[in-house]
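Please check the following.

. . .
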Amino acid sequence: MHKLCSLFRQPSPVLLFCLQAAIAIGLFSLLCWVTIRHTVGEIDEHLFLKVTQIQHLPPDEIPARIAMDTSDDPENKRPYGYFSPRGEHIVGAFETLPSKVDGKPFNLIATLGHQAGDVQRHYRGVVVRLPSGGILVTARSTDGEGHFDKVLLLIAGGSLVFVLVIGMVSGTLVNAAAARRLRDVRRATQQIASGRLDHRLPLSGSGDDIDNITAVVNSMLDEVERLIRDIQGICAGIAHEVRTPMTRMRGTLETTRRRTMSVTDYEQVIDTALQQSDIVMTRFSALLRIAQIGEAAVLARKSPLNLQDVLNDVIDFYEAAAEERSLTLELLPCVPAIVNGEADLLFSAFGNLIENALKFTPPGGAITVMLHQRDGKVTVEVRDTGPGIPVAERDLVFLPFYRAKHQAGTTTTGSGIGLSLVAAIARLHNANVSIREGGPRCCVAVVFESGMHIHPAGASREEVDCKR
């Protein structure tokens, strides 16, 4: 019983074909049976109509009527027979009284007539005892209907065979194509499992369910490859970032152990070691911050919020720092734009962008924040008058611990995690972060894929467009 249930839960192609064949045979058989029964019903109705017509005639007129109908039917396609109450033949093509006299239609084979060449015919007839006592036999030839039934069965059988052959051939071809695609998928999966993370499952281009599932799996593999590469980059970055402060701290401690130093010198060494350990802890805290961004608790806190309010808070927070560096920090006037997000995370992301701009913009420069919405997308841009980022490095700077080459030899401090944090927060909010063309300047754009635009009363065209 268990095997039978398993068979129907996971039917094989052969079982499915057998079921389809059985259904097709059943439908053809039902069609033939209904057609034949309909034909027989029409013949029976005709026979009872003739019996009714004869019954309504006076008894002395019945023989003459039957004789006239018999003479009008030389081929005996609708023969009659009239017999006395004792079964003696009186008139009609039937000279022998059939054994059934129960008024129910039946099939019979008879040879009527006395001419050479008369052949046996198949009839559908009925024998009825009339009120006058006489016995009436009336029949109708079914040779034509029999021929039609044979042709119908031949056509139905041929059609059935044709359908089964077409179904078998089509099923074989479809099964072979599906098996070939599955083999390709299996080979691609084996290559991916062997370490070729850049390999993808093949698409047939038909757009069917298998292609849709394959596309989803390929998207998942793209994300897995990106995550693994990020992990590799993070590991390399951790090794690089942690090695330098740890080497300095170890060198300082070894030097201290070999020399005789005063209490003040020991305190300076300890302070230096603490500073280096703080640098290491800062790196790991930033990594932990990135790891915690995608947690379910963060996702649960997302709600509709006004990006203009978030940006105003960020500007207010960093305005004093900008004044200390003799920089201009402003948010261009724009209408509110609503997105679904988490306010603290977005504040952190935009704050990191402004912190970077504050670090690399020379005194007297300007930092401009823009908010606009076009084609259903909300865009936040942070522009500064700093040195900018080379085109070749605009994707790399979003990797953890990566530092642009123009930072080499500068005294600018940082963990190298800021833009990685911005990218992680952007992904959480279904947004993309990129560095756009700005000539010698730097322009970082965060584009949210969907948002709800609000037009406050009195907003000007310039405020709505926020054009550069």
Q: What stands out?
A: The longest helix spans residues 143-193. Confidence is low (pLDDT under 50) at residues 453-468. The domain at 209-293 is CATH 1.10.287 (Helix Hairpins). The longest strand covers residues 121-129.
